[in-house]
Design goal:
mainly alpha, DUF1468, membrane, transmembrane helix, transmembrane, DUF1468 domain-containing protein
């Protein structure tokens, strides 16, 4: 029974209508990731005389990711939405600001394009720089220096410590 001193609650109050497009995109992205992982996993050659071969764990991860993405997609199509945690001060209905993710993605794509011609250190430094800039650092010389140092340390650890071959690019004779 309702309290007569309170105003009536309009029908549909509290319910958010429609399909959540961002949630659907995330769910479909997880499905796509799981499918790509599964395709890659099935291309791993099976080990000789092995009960547990090199495919087992990647297969578990890829099938699990595909299953999770499918469950997320079904949930979104049934009206489910990702809700922010209670301590988050956000409005789930507010329009998202995509400038920072776009800057990070652009920096990643530019850095990846520069890996071969200019080398790992410079390409990776571009990626680090754009991430720092997207997170609000505006002191460009400091940010560029830190990005170059981190990229150089990463290069040395990967090539000397792990024995990987990475493109040196412009720094071919120096590194």
């Amino acid at each position: 029974m309702s309290d007569p001193t309170l105003p009536p609650i309009p029908p549909g109050a509290g319910a958010r209508p429609g399909l959540s497009v961002p949630d659907l995109l995330v769910a479909l992205g997880v499905v796509l990731l799981g499918a790509l992982l599964l395709i890659g996993t099935l291309q791993i050659p099976f080990g000789i005389n092995a009960v547990v071969g090199p495919r087992v764990f990647p297969l578990i991860v890829s099938v699990g990711t595909l299953l999770l993405g499918t469950l997320l997609t079904v949930n979104v199509l049934r009206g489910g939405r990702a809700e922010p945690a209670a301590e988050e001060d956000t409005d789930p209905d507010a329009r998202p600001d995509l400038r920072q993710p776009a800057l990070i993605l652009g920096g990643f794509l530019l850095g990846a394009a520069l890996l071969q011609p200019l080398g790992f250190v410079i390409g990776t430094a571009v990626m680090y720089f754009t991430v720092g800039f997207a997170f609000g650092e505006r002191r460009a010389p400091l940010l560029a220096g830190v990005a170059l140092i981190v990229a150089l340390v990463t290069y040395v650890v990967f090539t000397r410590g792990l024995g990987l071959t990475l493109p040196a690019g412009l720094l071919n004779g120096v590194l």
